[in-house]
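Q: What residues go here?
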């Protein structure tokens, strides 16, 4: 069956740019984008407090202790996460040392892997232009860039899930059942990256696809038994070992652990972390659920600027549906093309095979993305949980975009309607760009006489949007004075957003589709480079590395080598201090969040203090170094009144000691 947007092998409507038809030329440019946007961002800023350094602490302990089964953070069992990201980081630490580059390298390489996979998949389904666009969209999307600035496994999960789907789809299409083993192996590795959510997402896409396409009749060829054995051989050993090494202790009752009475790994990991988290009943309840409008609006933001082309892609899909529904099997252009004497039988069969694979790709990716979006719209969620769906949606958008640009002139009514949506997308991009450039320009003008302050955190407001539980909450704390520290990245972003969208729009109106689309991508690449510079300027607010450096200088002096590190509050608030000092910290009122379950094991170190016990050791024995977040300043100064010696203040965090230096 033909479609109005079949790939053109003869008499294409537009001249084919030489760039994307040469894999070497394409990947030379794509690698330059990766190096400029993602690789260059691996060296700064320092590890961020909260999840970034907390996860790095677990990998650091693994690298030092040699225990590759049980994760520990600050000496406490950390049973929440599967091991793959920590294994990779532990290896990196042995190769490159304990630094931010080694920590984030696996995540960035996984992004590059996603781009390579998207290129190969889209090239087969949609052609060379779509392949180039798909890889470029992975490397220049706002959400993918933002959520590789700290250590989370979503890029790894996405790559291995995508690889599993691609292996099964091509195995079915090419009648090569042996390829299914790659799919089973990739799915098992995805489980080690993120947990049981991987097979849930995989089956939620594959099973409906098999039913709709009729491929379920070939179920015997799926190598179910031997494939399951391979899957379990890769995924099961760590889970079994983790369960054996972290059993139940005492007589745990219910879902709330108490000292000496705690559920082991199997209950905590499979029930508490998977089932109860989905239901919003996980203990402790430290995960939010975004309002529905914020959740869905966020998807457009994280896919920006490629989400601008989503309406055009939806129009294309709808018009294709109408043609299929009316049983119009061939339009004049495609009939002529198949009858063209210059097209060999092999070319015709290749064209038909691509149409078939394109349709099946669209089906499986649409089901995959839709399920993930609905799943996290119902469940507790964070902004980056839908990352695997972004991979699928970007391939669908760029495939449609490339098809529209390459559509034959014989389908004038369809291509003109789609072109209007493309022009509208550029108009929106231009309005957004000009508005943002004007806002940045105003900020630059208003801050022209304000001094540059390196510690931007000291100038931020404390509006508490999302109660700081969202990854982007600190963005809403910006003030005019803080903007002075961002003048350089703001100027770069303003120029890019003012010129880039206008250039792209003019190129689109001139009919230069490829140049227009790449202009959008390059505009975003420059903006992301500027965004990273801004993130580095936010470093003192987001990371306690400078305080850790001060502690290291103090403990390097005679008489202070055994100084005791103390954090007030949850360890995540000062997790980068623990990482960069390589010291275990006492935690005051810190039996919270990720520390609760592990702290209830009988062999947990005695690192948890209350105010009276802090007061009892303050000023006695070895020197004490106390890191206090801003929310606790007044309270700590009241508890330790007259016994505090301030060493350093960084943004909201303050370093105290119990005696003069």
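A:
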């Amino acid at each position: 069956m033909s479609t109005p947007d079949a790939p053109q092998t003869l008499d294409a409507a537009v001249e084919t740019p030489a760039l994307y038809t040469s894999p070497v030329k394409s990947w030379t440019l794509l690698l330059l984008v990766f190096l400029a946007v993602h690789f260059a961002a691996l060296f700064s800023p320092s590890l961020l407090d909260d999840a970034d350094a907390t996860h790095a602490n677990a990998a650091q302990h693994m690298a030092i202790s040699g225990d590759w089964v049980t994760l520990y953070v600050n000496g406490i069992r950390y049973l929440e996460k599967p091991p793959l990201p920590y294994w990779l980081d532990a290896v990196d630490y042995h190769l490159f040392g304990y630094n931010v580059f080694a920590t984030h390298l696996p995540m960035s390489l996984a992004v590059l892997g996603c781009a390579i996979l998207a290129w190969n998949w889209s090239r087969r389904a949609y052609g060379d232009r779509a392949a180039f666009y798909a890889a470029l969209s992975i490397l220049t999307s706002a959400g993918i860039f933002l959520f590789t600035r700290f250590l989370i496994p979503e890029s790894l999960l996405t790559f291995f899930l995508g690889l599993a789907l691609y292996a099964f789809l091509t195995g079915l299409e090419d009648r090569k059942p042996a390829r299914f083993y790659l799919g089973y192996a990739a799915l098992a590795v995805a489980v080690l990256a993120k947990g049981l959510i991987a097979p849930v997402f995989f089956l939620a896409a594959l099973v409906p696809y098999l039913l709709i396409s009729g491929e379920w009749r070939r179920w015997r060829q799926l190598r179910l038994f031997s494939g399951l054995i391979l899957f379990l051989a890769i995924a099961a050993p760590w889970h079994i070992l983790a369960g054996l090494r972290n059993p139940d202790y005492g007589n745990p009752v219910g879902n709330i652990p108490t000292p000496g009475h705690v559920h082991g790994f199997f209950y905590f990991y499979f029930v508490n972390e998977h089932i109860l988290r989905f239901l919003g009943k996980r203990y402790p309840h430290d995960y939010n659920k975004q309002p529905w409008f914020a959740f869905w609006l966020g998807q457009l933001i994280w896919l920006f600027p490629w989400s601008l082309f989503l309406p055009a892609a939806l129009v294309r899909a709808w018009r294709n549906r109408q043609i299929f529904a009316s049983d119009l099997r061939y339009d004049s252009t495609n009939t002529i093309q198949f009858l063209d004497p210059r097209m060999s039988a092999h070319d015709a069969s290749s064209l038909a095979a691509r149409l078939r694979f394109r349709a099946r790709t669209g089906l499986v990716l649409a089901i995959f993305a839709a399920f993930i979006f609905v799943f996290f719209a119902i469940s507790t969620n964070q902004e980056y949980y839908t990352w695997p769906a972004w991979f699928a949606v970007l391939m669908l958008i760029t495939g449609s975009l490339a098809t529209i640009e390459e559509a034959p002139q014989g389908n004038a009514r369809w291509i003109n309607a789609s072109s209007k949506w493309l022009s509208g997308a550029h108009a929106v991009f231009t309005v957004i760009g000009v508005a943002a450039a004007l806002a940045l320009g105003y900020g630059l003008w208003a801050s022209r006489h304000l001094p540059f302050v390196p510690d931007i955190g000291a100038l931020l407001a404390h509006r508490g949007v999302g109660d700081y539980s969202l990854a982007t909450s600190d963005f809403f704390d910006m003030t005019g004075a803080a903007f002075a520290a961002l003048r350089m990245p703001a100027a770069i972003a303003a120029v890019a957003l003012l010129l880039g969208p206008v250039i792209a729009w003019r190129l689109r109106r001139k009919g230069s589709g490829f140049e227009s689309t790449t202009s959008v991508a390059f505009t975003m690449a420059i903006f992301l480079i500027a965004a990273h510079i801004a993130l580095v300027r936010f470093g003192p607010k987001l990371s306690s590395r400078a305080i850790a450096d001060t502690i290291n200088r103090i403990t390097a002096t005679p008489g202070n080598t055994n100084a005791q590190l103390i954090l007030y509050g949850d360890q995540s608030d000062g997790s980068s201090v623990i990482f960069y000092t390589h010291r275990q910290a006492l935690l005051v009122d810190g039996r919270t969040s990720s520390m609760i379950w592990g702290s209830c094991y009988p062999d947990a170190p005695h690192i948890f203090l209350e105010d009276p016990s802090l007061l009892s050791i303050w000023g006695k024995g070895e020197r004490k170094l106390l890191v206090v977040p801003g929310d606790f300043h007044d309270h700590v100064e009241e508890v330790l009144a007259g016994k505090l010696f301030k060493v350093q203040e960084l943004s909201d965090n303050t370093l105290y000691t119990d005696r003069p230096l």
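A: Context that may help when evaluating the design: The chain has a mean pLDDT of 86. The radius of gyration is 27 Å.
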